Structures are given as structure tokens and as C-alpha cells.
Amino acid sequence: MFNPLKVNKFPEKPGVYLMKDIEGKIIYVGKAINLKNRVKSYFRNKESLSPKVRAMVSQIEDIEFIVTESDLEALVLECNLIKFHKPKYNILLRDDKQYPYIKINLDAPYPYLEIVRRIKKDGAKYFGPFVDAGALRETIDAIRKIFPIRYCSKDLSKLPLKERPCLNYHIKKCLAPCKGGLPQGKYMEMVENIILFLEGKTDLLVNILKEKMFKASEALDFETAAEIKEKLISIEKVRQKQHVVTMDLKNKDIIGYFSFENIICLMVLFVREGKLIERRPFIFNDSYQNEPGEVISSFIKQFYDDMKTIPEEIILPENIEDKDVVEEWLCFKKGAKVKIVIAGENSEEDFKLISLALENAKEYVMQKRLWEKKEECNVLEELKQKLSLQKLPFRIEGFDISNTGGTDSVASMVVFEGGLPKKQDYRRFKIKTVEGPNDFESMKEVIYRRFNRAKKGDEKFGEIPDLLLIDGGPGQLKYAKEALKELGFNEKIEVISIAKELELIYKDDKDPIELPKTSEALKLLQRIRDEAHRFAVTFHRNIRAKRNMDSVLDSIPGIGEKRKKALLQSFPSIEEIKNTSIEELARVPGMNKKAAKAVYNYFHSVLH
Fold first, then answer.
1. What average pLDDT score do residues 323-340 get?
2. pLDDT digits over 40-89, tens only?
3. What are the distances in angstroms from CA 573 to CA 100, 252, 542?
4. Contact 11, 73 (CB under 8 A)
5. Which of 173, 364, 378, 206 is nearest to 275 (CA)?
6. What does pTM read for this prediction?
7. What class is the 395-542 domain?
8. Homologous superfamily of the 252-366 domain (CATH)
9. The domain 4-85: what is its CATH number?
């Protein structure tokens, strides 16, 4: 237990303090204007502390500190340490790495859109994060419909390329800089318009395009004017989906706060040029009853730490303790003035925006709880009781093996949270160490690999499940448990298997558990098992199909490795290649009329 008298030797300077438990693990990181006074406050009157802080203080074995030159430096250091250590008692924003961003590398000769999950300090422009994958797809589709930016990631440092432009050029969806002759200035002008679009500056973009349309029309270049008009119509369709919520044209983020039971929702509304363009909800588990100001302050620091576009104003529902230093930090990151506005202190319009954010946050939480109560408290509670599990199995991971006579063995991992699939967490594995049709050893390999990566800190495998579901009987279950035991996870994770024939559930090699056929808990396990099977079989078929395609294409005269690769990238199956005309085959990069005829003739003379 930490001796509070040690705090008397702490300096009365700004800095960061790190609280550690008996194992030396950092459990909390905080910043202070005065390190000595701030840390002392944890030990003065324990009865006045919140349940969270009391629980944390009881685990403190040691406290280290780092002195900084200023409050701002302390805030920056605090952000970095929280991000790196992910302490148990800090309020942690769900890691942005699982949210995609749109990246535009402006240093590339002819930039293209990339979807990435990690922001780097590489001079590129990043837009996001996109919490909703559907919104990301919709945004990219809209951009590509309006602007013919290139789809591919080819190296265009040396132009022209030897290969022909792809199909997108022929259907006027790409300007094809790869063929050479396209002025870089013209292409970059389009990229700048895309950036305006992604920044929500559609009014400015529309004015720029209208001016160009009128100039083209005056110059009797009616074809260019018509093309610009089509773009304006498409942009207008996007703008119609955006609602005007304020006459103030400043760019603003509005953060609404709502808590219910143990759930906190922070709803961020993004207002650009007076229009509400997007909303993003962030959910926190508030089992420690944190104060709203503490949650909001922690959220701002983590959310805007990686954001490339910080607005002119951030409107909050209530004041935060370190408002001035957070505002100074935001200005430093943006390189321009950023103002934190507390709703009600400035204008009635800001208060209306916060009310809108609150309403959205409340609706989101209540819908979430309605579903959770219906699904979790019924199906998951039934599953816990019927199988005598130690805790509610909110996150369940299902595993299955697929092969054909022991060849091309693969495994699948599917994830269900709260009874619903979480497809972004699905994973696929090629079996590496097992030869022949040995499902037992294959299952052991994949379970070992999955949790070994978690043990090594791989963020893709960071979340630990409450329950593992193995497709199979006691044999597969035994080998899965062996893998967990070797890694030290055997006491942390419960494992069951489900055998297909009689739908019996095994927790060990003793008597199986038989649930009624009408049981919702059994139906959930069957859904997870069937999804794992589907995912494994699909992966296995794709591998086999690719191998078969390789084999077939190897038989066609004039089709070498480069052309084979190009065909495999352009067409998903042999059937598609077979049904493609000579003209379309010739447009595939690396192909010509002669090679296209060879492919066409092969399928229409040999196979039919």
C-alpha cells in the first residue's frame, strides 16, 4: 500500500502523475498544475471520494511523477501516456484505429483516395474517423460519381506506363493519368475540390464550379459546361441530405452528453457552414459513476488528438475543469484560434444545438438499452444459467475449420456481441503447421495463434471474449483448451463446443448439455456456429477457386504471370472471364487483342 507521506516530497510544479498497482502496472494517469496538492487530494478525506476513486486509491502501490514546463506540456504528455498505457481507471475512448479514415497523399504525383485505420504524420490529408462504414462507402461513392479521381494505387512517378488504361477510363470514371499527357495541375485542381467536399465546404465548391461552368459556356465549350453541370446536380443531391441548423456559418462540433444506468453516450454533431453534415455516437461503460465534466474533458483530449480537422468552435453542455488549457492545446494543434463554448453562456442558437445533440444522444442510448434489455437479459441470461457460466457472455467468439481432404485447410473466427454479429472483428486463418485432415490440431493451432497475438498486444485481437464456441465435439474442445492453457488464458475464458448431429453442448469431456430445441439460447449458439461455418467455407472456396483459376489460366497460350495476375484482379471467377467479350478482355491492363482472343477461344472451344 502506498504511503501518503511520500507526497510531501512531491514538487509544487505542473506535471503528470502515474499511479501503479502492486504488479507495477499503471492504473491511472493524471495531470496537475501543482503535483503535490493534486496528489494529496486523493488521501485527505477518502469518504468524500467517488466510488471509482476509492477503488483506485485502494490499489495504489506507488506513484511516479514527471515535471513539465507548463500546463499545456502536461496535457500533451497526459494524452500520450493514456494512449500508450490505456490505464484501467482512465476514461478511454474506443480506439480510433478500428475506425476508418479517408486519406489523400498530396505528395503523390497524382493522389488517390485511400481507406486507412491509422493516422501518420506524413503530410497527407485525413478525413474521419467514420464510425459508420455505410457513411464511408456513401461518401466515397459520391466523390467518385462527381470527380473522376483514379481508383488504383499504381506508382505513377514514371509516365506513361506501358500497360493500357483500365476500364474506369473508358467509362469516364477516371482521367487515367497512367497513360501520360494529363497536366498535373488539372488533376490537382480536382483533388482540391474533393478536399473542399470532404471538409463540408460545399457552398464554396458550388460557387467555384458555377464560375467555371459560366466561363466554359462563354467560351462556347458546351461539353465542359455540361460536365460541370452534372457535377453540380450530384453535389446538390448530397446537400439536400444536409440540414441547415444555424445561420452562423462557423464550423462547429457540438458534443451532447447523456447517461442512463451504467451507459454514457457522447454524441458529436458536425456542423459545417451552418449545415449538420454528420453525427457520431460514442458509448462508454460508466461503472465508476464518473462526473460529466471529467468524461467530456477526457473525451475531447483523446478525440481531437488524432483529428486533422479541428473546427473553430466546440460547444459543450457544461463547463470542464481544465477548459483554458484544453482550449490552448486545441489552438496549438489547429494552428489557429479554437473556442470552447459552454451552451447557454453565449447564444440561444448554441443552446438549441446542444439540445439537439442531447436529444440524439438520449435516443441512441434508449434504443441501445431497449435492445440490450430484450436480447441480453433474455437470451444471454438464459445462456449463462443453462450452461452455468461465470458471467454474462456478451462477447462470444465462434471458431470452425474447413478443408477438402486435408488440403487448403483454413479456420474462421466470428464475433457476436449482445447476440448480434460484429463483422469488423471477424478473422480468417490459413492453417500453417498441420498436415492432412486433422481438425483437432488445426483447432489448437488457430486458438493458440489468436490468443498469442492478444498476449503480444496486437490491437486487432485485443478484445478478450467472455465465451469461446468451438464447432465440434469434446475432441475439438479438448485441443482448444490445451492452447488456452499453454498461453495462460484457461482461467480467464470459458469454452464450450457444439456438436452438429444432436446439437449437444460440451463444457468438458463428461456428460453433454442438451438444451430444448425451442431454446433461444440454443438458437443463438446455432447461429454463431453456422456463421463460423459459412465464413470458413467461403474462405476455403475462395482459396480453392483461386487455385483452380490459376491452373486454368496457366493452360492458355500467351498468358504469363503478369496477365494472369491482371485477369485475377479484374474478374472474381472463371465464369466471369468466360462470359466476357474479346473487347472487354483486351481492356484489362497488360492484355492486348491477341491475348484476349486466346482467352476467349480457350473457353469457347475447349470448355464447350
1. 92
2. 989 887 767 777 788 888 889 999 999 998 999 999 999 889 988 889 88
3. 29, 48, 9
4. no
5. 206
6. 0.47
7. alpha beta
8. Ribonuclease H-like superfamily/Ribonuclease H (3.30.420.10)
9. 3.40.1440.10
